[in-house]
Amino acid sequence: MPGVQLEDVVRAHGEALHSYATRLTNGDRFAAEDVVQETWVRAWRNLDRLTENQGSVRGWLLRVAHNIAVDQHRSRRARPTEVGLPDQGLEHAAVTPSSHEQVEAKIVVRAMLETLSPAHRATVLEVYYADRTAVSAAKALGVPAGTVKSRLHNALRTLRRTVGSEAVAA
């Protein structure tokens, strides 16, 4: 490490490194600056390796910059694209109910489920609350899949009638 100073390396190779990083990032100035900055950090950490005796300093810097640019590209591809909310149209945005309203809705749903027979209630709970298919619900309940489908159909019809009569009563 004697004689090798990072300032000397930056002076000698900084412009070439920046040009190379700009090409690697397709002209994205900010991404190129990130690549260059990370390259200089790695150069500082490896000053003892930056001697002409161990190979070309410029070659080492360019290889490190290339690897960093490839890593950044892979990282960007792995992350989902961020999409901002538009300024307009927020009046149509979904509004989540308060915890009080959620509790109230759960009480109403539970009361409606209590109007079903135990077999129909169990079927609805397996399919909708346990998020099972008709086949896996049938296995869990020990009945054929066709029975689960017919029970589910009848239970939903009963619940619709219950909701309809509740709406009329209110």
UniProtKB/TrEMBL annotation:
It comes from the Bacteria. Residues 10-78, 113-160 form the RNA polymerase sigma-70 region domain. GO terms for biological process: DNA-templated transcription initiation. Pfam families: Sigma70_r2, Sigma70_r4. GO terms for molecular function: DNA binding; sigma factor activity. Keywords: DNA-binding, Sigma factor, Transcription, Transcription regulation. Belongs to the sigma-70 factor family. ECF subfamily. This is Sigma-70 family RNA polymerase sigma factor.
